[in-house]
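cache lookup: miss for this entity combination. No prior model stored, computing from scratch. Input as submitted by user K.M.:
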Amino acid sequence: MKTDQVLSVLEKHEGDRGGLIAVLEDVQAKYGYLPAEVLKIVAEETGRSLVDIYGVATFYRSLSLRPRGKHLCSVCTGTACHVRGAPVIAGEFERQLETAVGATTEDKEFTLETVNCLGACALGPIVVVDGHYFSNVNSSRVKQIIKKTHAGLDEAEIKADRRVYLHTVSCSRCNHSLMDPNHKIDGSPAIRVTVSFERKHGWLRLSSLYGSFAVESEYPIRTDEIVDVFCPHCHAELKSAPACPLCNAPMVSMIVRAGGIVQICSRRGCKGHMLDLNGGGV
Amino acid sequence: MITLTINGLEVPVEKGTTLLEAARFLGFPIPTLCHMDGLSPYGACRLCVVEIGEGPKAKLVSSCTYPAQEGLIVRTASSRVLRARKMVLELLLASCPQSKTIQDLASAHNVRQQRFRQEHEDCILCGLCVRMCKEQMVAKAIGFRGRGQTRSIGTPFDIRSEECRLCGGCMYVCPACQLRCTYTEPEKAVCGGCANVSPPCVEKEQFDDMMCYMTPCVACEIQE
Ligand code: SF4
Ligand code: SF4
Ligand code: SF4
Ligand code: FES
Ligand code: FES
C-alpha cells in the first residue's frame, strides 16, 4: 500500500526529468517525511542513484528524513527577526517543548525548527505553526502559542472567520499598501498585485472583501492555473512557506493592516485561504 | 585551436583544454589536491589558483576548472598566486594536519607556520572519493550529504551500500584518510591487515576511529 502511494506520485511526475525536488516534496506530503524504503523505490523507479537522491534530501531543510511531529513550529531566525530577538524565542520554545531545534518532542506532537526568513520581516519576529502566522512574537507569548496549537488552530480559525471582513493589505516584504483606491470590486477598493504565469505578466485585482473571491485580471487565467504573485512596489514574490490546505499549491501572503496575515491560494479557482489576526486570534 | 599566453609563452591548445592542462603541457608546475587525471574537474581545494588578465582586472581562478580562452594571459607563479596558494595550504593544514598529502604539499611550498586552530577534520570535502566511486568505479555508492557546516561524505543512511564494490578506490584517492587505517596501532603508519583474508579490524569491537572516513568501513565487510 505504501508502494502504491509512491508509484502514484511518480506517475504524476512522469516525463518531467529533473523534477526530483518536486517528487520528494510530494512524497513528503504523503508520508510527512521521507522514509528510507520510499527513497529506495524512488531511486529504482526513476533510475537515479540513491546517493544523489539522499544528497538532495539532506540538502534541503524542507525535506526531512525523520518523522515529524503533528505540528510543525518554525521560528524565523532570518536577519530581521534575529535582531528582534528570535534566538530568545527559539530558546523559549526549546524550554517549553523540552526539545531542541530540529528535533521532535517525545509525544510526537511538535517539531521545532528555525527557518531563515519567512518573507514577512515587517511583522517580525515571526513564528509559523502549521502554516498559521504569529507575528510580533515575544517570549511571553510562546506558552500561549503552544496552548493554542494543542487546542487546535483550525477550530479557532473558523470561529474568527464567520464574518464579512473588509481588509486593507500590504506587501509582506516592503509593507507598501497593495490597495488600489481607484478601482473598485464589490464596491470597495481592490487589492492590486502583479501576477505572472505562462510567460505572461500583468496585474490582478482581488476583492478586498474577505470571503469574496471576485477577481479581475489583465489576462484571463485558466481555472486551476497556479500563478506567481508579486508586489507591484518592491517586486518581491508574495510567497509563503506553507502549502494550500485544500490543493497543496503555494500560498500567497499579505499583511493585514489591522494586524496579522492573510494567505490565499495561488491556484485560480481554489478557495483555500487562511487568516491569522494576531489581535483577535491569539 | 586557441592561443593563450602562459607566463609570457604563447601556446596553442585544443578548445576545451583547461588552464591546468595547458600549463602542465608547457612544463609549468601547478600543485593540485582535488584534481586527478581521469576524474572530472571539481574545483574544491583552490590550490591550483593562477592569475589571469592584467592590471586591475587581474583575478585568481582555479586552473583545473578554467577553460582556455583565446588571448588569455595567465601567470602561474606571480607573487599574488604564491601568497594565495600558501594561504590555502595553511588553511588546509589547519583543517587536516594529520594528512600526509597536505603535509608534503605544505612543506614543498615552504609553509612554515600554521596560524589557525587545528581542526583535525576527517575530510576536507575535496570530492575525490565521490568522483572516483562514480566515474571510475561506476558504483555511485557514496556522495555528499547535507550542506554547509554539516556537509559530509558517506553512504545513504550511513549503512553499508549495496552498490559499493568494496574496491577501496575511495580510500586510495583520499588525501585525508589514507593514513588513518591503523587498526590498533596508531603509531604505525598503515596496519595493512586488510591484505589478509580476514581484516583485524573486523574483530575489534569499536572500529570507529581507525577506519577511513566512513563508519561502518566499506572496505572491511563490517556491518553494524
Ligand atoms: S569502495 Fe565502494 S564506495 Fe569506495 S570507491 Fe569503491 S565502490 Fe565506491
Ligand atoms: S573523504 Fe577524502 S577523498 Fe573524500 S572528500 Fe573527504 S578528503 Fe576528499
Ligand atoms: S581497513 Fe581495517 S584491516 Fe584494512 S588497514 Fe584499515 S583498519 Fe586495517
Ligand atoms: S527575517 Fe523573519 S520573516 Fe524575514
Ligand atoms: S586542484 Fe583545482 S581546485 Fe583543487
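stored under new cache key. The pocket of FE2/S2 (inorganic) cluster (ligand 4) is lined by residues A 76, 78-81, 117-121, 124, 126 (CB under 6 Å).
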